[in-house]
Amino acid sequence: MPDPIATARAAGRTLLSEVESKDLLASAGIAVTAARLATSAAEAVKIADKIGYPVVLKVISADISHKSDVGGVELNLKKASEVKAAFKRIKAAAKEAAPKSKMDGVSVQKMADRGTEVIIGMTTDPQFGQVMMFGLGGIMVELMKDVAFRIVPLEPRDAHEIVRDIKGYALLEGMRGQAGVDVDALERLVLQVSEFAAAHPEVAEIDLNPVFAYPDGAVAVDARVVLAEVDAPVRETRAGLADRDRLHRVLNPKSVVVVGDKGPNYQWLTNQKEFPGPLYSVQIDEKEIAGIEERGFKNFKSLAEVPGDVDLLICAVPRQVVPYVMKDAIEKNVAGIAMFTAGFAETAEELGIQLQERVVGMANEVGMPIIGPNCMGIYNRRLGIRFSADMEHAEGGNVSFMSQSGSHSASLTNEGQFVGLEVTRTISMGNAAILNEADYLEYLADDEDTQYIGVYIEGPRDGRRFYQRLRDVTKRKPVVIFKGGTTEQGASAAQTHTTSLATPTALWEAMVRQAGAIPVVTREDLLDAMIALVKSPPATGRRMALLAGSGGQSVAISDSAGRAGLQMPRLSDESYERLKEFFNTIGGSYFNPFDMGGTIGGNSIRGSESNLQKILDILAEDSVLDAAIYEIAGGLGGQPNAERLNRQLDTIDAWRVGSWKKPLLMVVNPGSHPDGYELVRSQLVARGYPVYPSFERAARAYDRIERYYADRAARV
Ligand code: ADP
Ligand code: MG
């Protein structure tokens, strides 16, 4: 058999015929209904006689891609005379559809038994490279676009998930008396196509549409393989930053120089004023020098004059001056630059783009790491390197953020502190002209200070490497990703269905899931998930105890949990027996959710404080629970009694670490009383709880972290 790829290339084609496509795939062991080319009616009959009736004839022409659209598919031909007549009809149909081109012949193949139609495909994405698609065939894919994606190469677990990701999966399993199909066979097929694609980087697209799935086995009855254009740019994946040590120096500097800071605030110098190592200014403008020296910073007129090694250079000069600063920095052998200066490629202006290219060229020549440009640089809690002078400067910390947006870099750091996260580093990526999200992730993956990673990203610069790093790091450290900018670019003209369905959003979501990261869609969600991760032991299940101190909310609470896919199990009979003895059920309930207001005597008239301990003990001893969400009233019709609150929190604290030992998320509703809310909230944050302003947000955060831990457990 001639090599179908070589044949197509020789003829200057990228689209392989059905016969060529199936030959190629069959040689990789992929189940297809083998098709043979016949150039005449007589030859078609000869082949049909040999393979046995009934057969199918399909048009083969370089100009006809969708064969049945032009009347080019003849099914269920039972004898020679029918084959002859079908050949004639196809020839006439082809002439009408593509009058100028010649038909190469027809494919002849066995008529396969009807099965459930699915589509298995592969396309090449500019960001992520080869990706696989799975969907239900026929109108489900046309109309509902019910498809799922995974990045090549797939592992068995990815194949398992891709078929279960589609909404119509129940149909494959069998429902309402309909027999299911051989899902294992479909998973195998997906894996085989993934392997084939990985072994053939020159293959850009594949459509197996449809695949017939049976109760036993599956077979592709149509196949279309598309090669990459010969001169298609090879998608470049950078190897990563060779000089890790240099990036380490930039992110953990022993010396800092600010170039070009300006009044009235001299923000870059002022922000770093607590930095313990040498901090110098370089400024040539006499007007500014006075202000800088007045504030106690030592200024030099050139970088060359600065004594000692420089680890971090913060560049705040106007853009046209940047190449001169770079030249000096290279001569001084500065470790790296955080470039606040904007006006580069992000402007989409010729001048800005050129300037950025120049900067990239200069940096790459000497392997200099550059953060940005157009960014806020870095925050380092321990060293007091900051985006603003009011940010924390302290030891410790375990959370790191990286953000494409400068304002999110600052707000995530500040708000993170507000909700009780110890943010150890934040990297503002800006234009990511030299170092990009994959480089930073690679660094944070091995960074001892970083145990949890939060990412804000709009569009990755190096999607495939980011995915690879991400997939690796999530086995050790949770990563929460907030993706901004989800608008779709218009679908391009595509040869295969798979390509037309591979939207950036669909691929991004598939990538995040496949990599085992936690996807979120807002900044609140990002912080909500982060605090649940940092401030809870690993989640081990979805069975929740929902506890409300303020009563009356039970239905809404149950709804929130239900929406997040959490369960509220019945406790054991024994637990209910014990609860019955003291629980005040007048306006309360000890079914899950627990309405405890009248029992533990929150701000209400009834109840006794000691009952809280009894309830908590019963919960800890009941094995049906995995986690709890507990609402504390922020004061109804008045401020909570601070002493009483303290006693309540002491009880909960002791229980949490002593006998409960499972995730416990706290809710304080800001609607109740503004001062009371802040009192309770800050107390809880200080005591190390993950705190949420609503059950809804707590439930959603728990859902996310539980999925992460479940996924991680299944992967290792
Ligand atoms: P195209 O996608 O180019 O229009 P297909 O080869 O997919 O053409 O054929 C159209 C339809 O004909 C398929 O969706 C399938 O239902 C049916 N079909 C194609 N080949 C076979 C076959 N060998 N056995 C049974 N049915 C087939
Ligand atoms: Mg088809």
Task: Give structural notes.
By secondary structure, the protein is an alpha/beta fold. The protein folds into five domains: 34-110, Dna Ligase, domain 1; 116-227, ATP-grasp fold, B domain (D-amino Acid Aminotransferase, Chain A, domain 1, 2-Layer Sandwich), CATH 3.30.470; 239-363, NAD(P)-binding Rossmann-like Domain (Rossmann fold); 375-535, 3-Layer(aba) Sandwich (Rossmann fold); 537-715, Rossmann fold (3-Layer(aba) Sandwich). The protein is built from 26 helices and 27 strands. The strands form five sheets. Strands 5, 6, 7, 8, 9 and 10 form a six-stranded antiparallel beta sheet that branches. It has a six-stranded parallel beta sheet with strand order 13-12-11-14-15-16, with helices on both faces. It has a six-stranded mixed beta sheet with strand order 17-19-18-20-21-22, with helices on both faces. The two termini are 43 Å apart. Adenosine-5'-diphosphate is lined by residues 33, 56, 58, 66-69, 73, 75, 109, 111-112, 209-210, 221-222.
